[in-house]
Structure formats: structure tokens, C-alpha cells
Amino acid sequence: MRCPRRGRPGLPGTRFALKRWRQERHSLVKIELINTGSELLLGRVLNTHQQWICRQLADAGYEVARQTCVSDDGPSIQAAAREALGRADWVIATGGLGPTSDDLTRELLAQLLGRKLVFHPKSWSALSVTLSRADGRRRPAAASKQWRPRGL
User: Fold this and answer.
1) Against a cut of 0.70, is the pTM above it?
2) 139 and 91 belong to one structural domain
3) Alpha-carbon distance 130 to 59, whole Å?
4) Is the dihedral of CA 140, 145, 148, 152 positive or negative?
5) Cα 35 versus chain centre, distance
6) Are residues 76 and 7 in the same domain?
7) Which positions ≥6 away from 52 have C-beta within 8 Å?
8) Tens digit of each residue's pLDDT (9 = 90 or more) over 85-114
9) Which of 36, 42, 108, 118 could join 95 in a cystine, given CB atoms 3.0 to 4.6 angstroms apart?
10) How far apart, in Å, are the Cα atoms of 56 and each of 53, 59, 61, 64, 74?
11) What H or E segment, with its residue span, contains residue 151?
């Protein structure tokens, strides 16, 4: 194996060999992304979540194997999650996680996994600081974003 910058052999333990090993290890992880939102399927909103997440994962040496977009209805979300969990090592879900009453993704995924939703105080604390810096006030509705399936 040759180091592309210097043209000399790269020995195991060198920075180049370590970087290549990390990339190979990361490529073994199967990642799927599920985006929920009828607005995405209607073409009214650009799916910036998918672009940003895939870019962040790629920059870290990971590759997303599949990306699925489904409507906001319960059966579609659960079917997509069930299929993805059967194929992938990691499943990332976006959308339907906000503070409005019609956002069901969190509850549906917890039900599918057979786990209860638990409040995550560290995340709430961090989000509260960020929100209060933005406009000087806390938003109680944003607390609903801090509920997640136990163990995740």
C-alpha cells in the first residue's frame, strides 16, 4: 500500500493505514434513513434532513445504504421501520418528531420496538439553553422532543 501524498509505502500503524482501516470498518455498517412527512412526498418541502444527515455520515466515513420517504400515517411509518430494521444495523428516522399533536413517529417507533417513551433530561437541558439563547425564552412545547424510546 502506498501513501498517495508522498508516494512511499504506508506501513500498518501509520496515519494513512489507520484512516483506510476506519473507512473499511465504517463501510461494513448498513445504515438506512427514514424520512416521514407527507409534505416531502407532495414536493412542497425540500428534504434537507436527508442531504444533511447523509453528508455528515459520509464525512465521518459512513455510507447510507438506503433512504426511504413515507407519508405521516401510522401504518406507513411502522412498515418502513420494520423493513429497515430487518436490513440495517442503524436506522435513523427524521420528521414527525416535533411538538405538534399529529407527530406520531416517536410513539409508533416505540410501540414497534416494544419500548416505553422516557424523558431525556440532558437533551432537554441542552435544548433549553439553545432556545433561550435564540430568543430569551423557553418553549414548553419543545419538551415533547425529549421523549424517546427507552434505551435509545
Assistant:
1) no
2) no
3) 25
4) negative
5) 9
6) yes
7) none
8) 999 999 998 886 555 666 778 888 888 889
9) 36
10) 5, 5, 9, 10, 28
11) none
